[in-house]
Specification:
Blueprint (H helix, E strand, L loop, with lengths): L1 H12 L35 H4 L5 H4 L7 E2 L5 E2 L5 E4 L8 E3 L4 E4 L6 E4 L2 E11 L5 E2 L6 E8 L5 E10 L4 H8 L9 E2 L17 E7 L7 E8 L3 E3 L1 H11 L15 E3 L2
Parallel strand pairs: 1-8, 2-15, 10-13, 10-14
Antiparallel strand pairs: 3-6, 4-5, 4-11, 5-7, 6-7, 7-9, 9-10, 12-13, 12-15
Length: 264
């Protein structure tokens, strides 16, 4: 009898409330919080994500997880397609502190990237500090993720590294609106910026098949890690790091995957 009860409880626990979500909360157009609480430390930190919910199990069992270290000596150099940016000017991004990152949800349609004739519309962008991906084991102060989705549902994410150096006009303007330093707070831009200023002028990249770096860690995400590092004021990077509080998932195993490279 106890055995039968255990089976029933297991089936119930895997019921509708625990099914895989077809869409990551990244794509919700209104303020949305994950169904199961997770964090970057303690009992709800990355090493436990896969055990917090059946819908998060890929964090433990997935074979195409992100982020990864990019060993440049092992990158496969291919004749890959050019990455084309088509971002609007005059965007007025607002950032919300959702407790995990500073995130802007794209409202205006039309900003996109194109790869091999396929178009991916910009859905949102957010920040991690320090960087999640590493290059030859090296972290960067900030990693910007620009999340895109094609009409067929395929997801492509640009990863852009920022390091201390010359001031970044786009980042400085975002910071001038007072960055939201507490969960639920929001900053609203009074003027537009050029989204192109957030990305490198040289579209050389590393690419691989991976996952979202936050639960439910959905796989088959097409990653484009841009080679050119951008610069930002050191004080601004420190302020961002204080707000973001080490919101980077640890490096994941490649599990036999290859990383391909475009450009020199």
């Amino acid at each position: 009898m106890r055995f039968l009860i255990a089976i029933v409880l297991f089936i119930v626990s895997c019921g509708p409330g625990e099914k895989d979500k077809s869409e990551h909360y990244y794509f919700k157009k209104t303020a949305h919080h994950p169904d199961i609480h997770w964090s970057y430390e303690g009992a709800t930190g990355p090493e436990y994500w896969g055990k917090l919910s059946a819908s998060y199990r890929l964090a433990d069992t997935g074979k195409k997880q992100s982020p990864v270290n990019i060993d440049t000596s092992k990158v496969v150099v291919d004749n890959l397609p050019e990455l084309i940016f088509r971002y609007h000017s005059g965007e007025r991004p607002d950032f919300i502190n959702n407790g995990h990152t500073l995130q802007h949800q794209q409202e205006q349609d039309g900003s996109e990237i194109e790869v091999a004739g396929k178009h991916y519309q910009l859905e949102q962008f957010h920040l991690h500090s320090p960087s999640e991906h590493t290059i030859d084991g090296k972290h960067f102060p900030i990693e910007l993720h620009m999340v895109h989705k094609a009409k067929d549902g395929e997801v492509a994410v640009l990863a852009i590294f920022y390091k201390a150096g010359e001031s970044s006009q786009a980042l400085n303007y975002i910071a001038s609106a007072k960055l939201p330093d507490k969960k639920g707070n929001k900053s609203v831009m009074k003027q537009g910026i050029r989204l192109n200023d957030l990305v490198p002028t040289q579209p050389e990249y590393y690419t691989y098949s991976g996952s979202f770096t936050t639960p439910p860690c959905t796989e088959n995400v097409k990653w484009f890690v841009l080679k050119q590092e951008l610069e930002a004021d050191e004080e601004l990077l420190k302020n961002l790091a204080e707000i973001l509080k080490h919101n980077n998932r640890p490096i994941q195993d490649l599990d036999g995957r290859e990383i391909h490279g475009f450009g020199s």
